[in-house]
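Weekly sync notes, structure subgroup
Attendees: PM, AL, DS (notes)

Item 1: joint prediction request from the bench team. They want all two components modeled as one assembly rather than separately. Inputs as received:
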Amino acid sequence: MKKAVLLLTASLALGACDPVTVAPTANTQGGTIAAVDQPAMPQGDRVLLWGDTHVHSINSIDAFSSGTANADIDSAYRFARGMPVIFPRTGQRVQIDRPLDFLVMADHAVGLAISSRIAAEDPSILKYPIAQRLREMLLNDGGRALTTAAMGQSNLTDEEREAFLRDLRSDDVMGTSWQGQIDAAERHNRPGEFTALIGWEWTFAPNLRNMHRVVFTNVDGDVASQFLPLANYLTDGPEDLYNYFEQTRARTGADFVAIPHNSNLSEGRMFELTDKNGNPFDAAYAELRAAWEPAVEITQYKGSSETHPALSPNDEFADFELRNMLLTGVPTDPLGGSYVRSALLRGLAEEARIGVNPFQYGIVGASDSHTGFSSQLEDNFFGKLGEDYLPADRLGESAASIIFPAAQMSAAGLAGVWADHNDRQSIFDAFRRKEVYGTSGPRMRVRLFAGYGFAAGDADRRDFADHGYRIGVPMGGTLAPGNGRAPQLAIRAVMDPEAANLDRIQVVKGWIDDNGESQEKIFNVAWSGDRAMRSDGSLPEVGNTVDLNTARYSNTIGAPELATVWTDPEFNPDHRAFYYVRVLEIPTPRHHLFDALALGIDPATIDITPTIQERAWSSPVWYTP
Amino acid sequence: MKLRSWLREPLVHFLAAGAALFLVAGWIWPAPEAGRVITVDDAQLLEHLQARAQLYDEEGFAELLANMSEEERAQLVRDAAVSEALYREGQALGLAEADPLVKQRVIQQMRLLLMEEQASDVELSEADVRSFYDANQARYAEGARVSFTHVFFSKDRRGDAAEGAALDALAELQRDAVPFAEAGRHGDRFLYQLNYAEAAMREIAGQFGDEFTLALFQLEPGDAWLGPLESTHGWHVIGLRAKREPRVPPFEEIVGRVAEDALAEARSARAIAAIDRLMENYEIRDEAGGQ
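Output from the run, pasted for the record:
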C-alpha cells in the first residue's frame, strides 16, 4: 500500500498534467441535494496535534551508551520535523513517515549532556580534571565506560567519584548543559507548524522502582534560562518536584507539567497511597499532585501501564504489551500501584475519603526513544536503543545482549492533543485540561464528549464537536450531576488513514460502589461488521488478516470509522465514577515478525504473539455526585 | 595563553603520543617497500555490502557482486578499503580493547574523531549558503499540492445510488452556482475533512485512495464544480480552489534549513577530505587484480 503511494507520487511528479475537465451532465432536474444546516462555527473547532513528549538524545547518559549508536539533539528535532537524518548506528538515511506537530526532548537531568560534551571536547567541561579523566576512559575503554561512570560511578576511584559529584553536578556544568537544551529547542520551535517544548526527565527510582516523570514547561527559552532542571539526586520523592515547581513558578513565571511513566516498572510504588514519609495523603497533598500531574503515560516502548490481567480478569484485552518488572528486568507481582486504571480507581476512593482526587490523570502515549528518533511504526521500528536496530541484533543467535531488547517491545506511544493552536502555551493548556489521549503508535482520531442531552443521531452530526462542546464536556472534563439522568458519551473514532481499520470502541467504566469497593466494567459500544453482541456483552472477534509468511494484512475487515452515542445502562447517581474510551484496531503484524522473516526464523519459534491490536485510550471523564 | 590552552588539549596529547608511537614503530618494523597494503577479497566485499544494506542475503549480494561493472567494483573495493584503513588506524590507537562488537565501533569512533577535529570551526557566509542552495535545488523540491472542498455521497449509505446522486448534485450545484464555501450544506458527512488546504498527494491518497488522487491532481482549479470522482468511500463532487505545481521554494523562504544543510555538508566535506588524506597513506589492492 505504502509502496503504491510512493510510486504514484513519483509517476505524477514526472508526468506533466493533462487537464481533464469533467463537464456537468444534462440531467439538471430534481432537488436531490437537500441542503442541511450549516455548522454554527465550522472554523471554531480545536485541532488535533500529534506529538511525542518523551524522546532522549545522546545528551542522556544512558542514550550515550557506545557514543556512536544514537542521535544528537538536532537530529532528533529534525527527524520529528520530517526531515531526513542520518541514523548514527548504521550511517543510513532515515525519515519519519509523517512529521510530528510537537516534541519534548526529555533528556535526563541527571548527568545532562556530560558524556556528549566530553566526547565533543567541550572546553567548558574539560576544564575539570575529572572530565579529562573521563575523556581518557572514553578513548581507552569506549563509550560504555563513560555511561557506567555517569550512572553509578562504579568504575571510578573514591577520589574520582568525589570529584565527579562535586564538579560534574555543579551548577556551572548543569547550567551550560541546560542552555544547550534550550538553544536546541529554540532552533527548532516554529509556532503554528512545529512546537519544541522545553523539558527534561526527572529520573527518580528508589531501589530501582521506576517513579520517573517527564517534565515540560510552557515558557520560551528566555524564561527557561532562569532556572535549572531539577535532577533526581536533589530529591526524596515527587513532592520535592512539586515544591520546586511552586517555587520556580513564583520566581520566574514558568509553569510546569509532570507526566509519570512506566508505572509498570515501579512494583506498586508509582501510585502508592502514601507520601515520601509514609503518611497517608491529605487534601493538600492530593491537590498538589493533581495540579502538577495532569496526565500519565499509559504506554511506551517499555510496556503498557493500563492494567494487568491479574488486576482486570474480565478485560479480555488487558494482556497488551505487558512488562511487569523492575528497571533491571527482574519480574515483580502485578500490583495496583503499578497501573493507570487502578490509579484512577484509587483516586475515586481517595476523593471519597479526603475530598480531593490525587490521581485525576489524563492519558497520553509516548515513545521513550533513546535513539533520538520517535519511531512508531511496527514495520520500521528503530528500537529503544540503536544498539539493537538490525534484525540480527534482535533475534537469533547473534542477538545483542541489551537491557531493553527491542524484540520485547512494540513501536509504541504517541499523544493526540486537541489544542487551539500549535504553540507552546496552547499545547500546555490542552495537557492542563486533559484534552489529550494516547495511542500505541497509529494516529487514529478519537473524540469524546460526555453530557446529558445527546440524541441518538448526534454521532453522525457534521457539527459533532461544536455540538459536543455546547452541551457536554470533552475528554478530561468532569460531569456534574444531571438530576439523576444517566451520563451519555458521544464518541467518534476514525482510523489512521495510513494504518489499519478499527475493530471496536469500548467504554471502560470505574466506580466506587455502596460498600466503598472499587469496581470496573468494560462495555463494547460500537463495532465493525454485523457481529451480534452476546448476552454477556462480549463480541465475536473481528478476525485476523495477517499473513505470517509475508507480514501483510488487509483492511478487508474492520471499519474506517466508528461512532455512537452511548448511555450508561447501569448508572447510579450516588456512585463516583470515571469513563474512558478504548479504541481497538484490527490485528496487524508486530515488528518482530518482520525481523523474523528477514532472518528466515519461523515466527512460531518465538514466544511472542506475532500480531498486535494497536489501540487508543482517551482521557477519562469523571462523574462526581 | 593561546599556545598553553592548545597544549592542554587532550587530543593534542593523544595525537602526539600516537605520532611518537608511529615513529618508534617505524624504526623497529620498517614498512614494506610498497607502503601499507589492504587486500580486499570477495568475502570481505560481501560482508561490506550486507553491512551497508542491512540485508542479510548472501546469494543475492554474491550475484550483485559478480555482475558489477569494473567501476562499481573499484568503488566498492575502495569503500571497503576505507573501512579497513579506518579500522587499522583506530586499532593502532588501541580503541578496540574494551568492546566485543569491536570492528564497527572502532571505525565509527575513528570517523568521529576525524570529524570532530575537522568540524569544530566551520563557518559559512551567506554567499556560501546561497551557492549551496543553487547547487542542491532538487533536495528542496516539493510535490504538487491542492486546496479543495467536496460534496460527498457515501457508498455505505447509498450503495449503487451514490454515483447517480453525485451526478445529480454536480448538475444542481453548477446550475445554482453554489459557492464552494457552502459545500458543507450538501451531501453526506465525510469521515475526514470537508476542506483541504495545500494538501500533498500522500495525505490525499491515504484518505481517499490512489485512483481518486490521480484523478484529482489532473483537474484544473476554477470556480466550476468538477467530478464526480470515486474514492474508496464513495463519490465526490469537487470544488478545486487551487493547485500548486511541483516547485522549489525560493531561497528566502527556506534559508534557515538551507544554512543547516550547508553547514552539515561543509563539515562532512572536511571529514571526507580528512579521510582522503588518510587514505593517501594506503595503497588499495583488489585481490582479483584490479587497482
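Discussion: The first strand of chain B starts at residue 36 and ends at 40.
Action: AL to compare against the crosslinking data before next sync.
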